[in-house]
Amino acid sequence: MELAAAPPALLVRRHLHVAGEWVDPADGASIPVENPASGEVVGRVPAGTPADVDRAVAAARAAFSGWAATAPAERAAHLDRLHAALAARADEIARTIALELGTPLKLATRVQAGLPLTVLRSVVDLAARPPAEETVGNSLVVREPVGVVGAITPWNYPLHQVVAKLAPALAAGCTVVLKPSELTPLTAYLLFDAVAEAGLPPGVVNLVPGTGPVVGEALAAHPDVDLVSFTGSTATGRRIAHLAADRIARVALELGGKSANVILADADLPTAVKVGVGNALLNSGQTCTAWTRMLVHRDRYAEALDLVASAVEAYRLGDPFDPATRLGPLVSAGQAERVRGHVARALADGARLVAGGPDAPLPARGHFVAPTVFADVHPDSALAQEEVFGPVLAVIPFDDADEAVAIANNSRYGLAGAVWSADEEAALAVARRLRTGQVDVNGGAFNPLAPFGGYQQSGLGRELGAHGIAEFTELKAIQR
Ligand code: NAD
Predict the structure, then answer these.
(1) How far away, in angstroms, is 232 Cα from ligand 1 center?
(2) Which residues line ligand 1 (CB under 6 A)?
(3) Using CA atoms, how far apart are residues 14 and 21, in angstroms rounded to an integer?
(4) Which residues are catalytic?
(5) First-to-last C-alpha distance (Å) of the chain
(6) What pLDDT shows up at residue 131?
């Protein structure tokens, strides 16, 4: 085989971060990191082992009492320095996420690198306040850090998902061992470069890269981990809850979703459709809160489908580093294959293809799937029930608000949702009836201080804001 031009330099990281130092892993095995836009290997990280997890958990345990006793203002100052060190790397973080995940660079800069900075800033401000104490009759009710946290995170927002755990856990006074996704570990290394630069006390945060079945299981099952904070699929969340149940350890689970975007008859349709399509296709549909079911009042249904089809046409697939690209590849060949399977199943189930589909043109290489829209999707069908985690939108008509609520709530998930109406009170009334952890009315903006999490099989517990910090605490009642 003839070699093309020189391959790009591999991004190789050889160490774990334990007790404040870069240390050698127990074993020399490594995991390749792929660029999903080309299929080429672009990096390598250690394949951690249970022995590495033991070492990292021991470091986190040793650091716990000192960090828990550190004054809130001092902990906030540490987090502030971490914010500065991360902000200094924002450009490198965005480029790394474009490389290892395939998010278009513009979006990677704004959302993938920008959002965690916003979240971290909000936690710095909250961390500086002493934890609230409450007097209930003769009791003083105080909050104390829960202990050592095992954080296990997915690939779809590789920095945000980590910061949404690490920052509130540290603010609460916990110490942390992180296992990032094996598909996007290079971003976690940039975070730990920032941790090292910020000078966090040794052992307060530790990094063990590796696979779910090896490092993830060892961390979730570790007898000295007090709380496992997990973001990922519902299937893995179930497994982690089982592992933690054996020792009655706490779990916080942020899992999958199948969120409904309810567009009432009097909605500003062009805006509702444009924002709805943008939300469903964000990060190539690899977003847990994606509004993947668009529910439209039958009076506006035909008009909405036309708007959806022309909105989707504008999403150009391509190289994440090309400024004209609006949709990158899916993260892996396996993920692209799973999404194609959902598309084939929807066709077999009789859904009407409105845009994209299996025959739509694709870039010559990389794990691309065309943005695809189905109309007349039956609310009980697989496409309306299962999380696809790709650029696939199901459009479903309804006749009145009661039916819209019934369809929206016909799901085992309950993560997010949206309602659109010219009558904000009517929209709010529908929002209150949706069985989900968050709902956006008429495109309400993301709020980093609002609790984030799911009902039903979308998870347990809440992240972000004061509720997110409370997740990492125990309550103690002192009677006087
Ligand atoms: P995943 O469950 O496959 O993996 C998530 C993490 O768990 C990875 O670090 C993985 O290595 C680890 N893991 C896998 N098997 C494990 C095991 N047996 N024990 C311990 N750890 C294990 O999920 P994913 O494919 O990385 O992410 C996509 C999923 O995450 C989607 O279902 C999506 O909805 C969900 N998600 C949810 C949220 C949320 O906040 N609710 C946010 C983002 C993603």
Answers:
(1) 2
(2) 152-156, 161, 179, 181-182, 211-213, 216-217, 220, 231-233, 236, 239-240, 254-257, 288, 387, 389, 415, 454, 458-459
(3) 13
(4) 254, 288
(5) 80
(6) 82
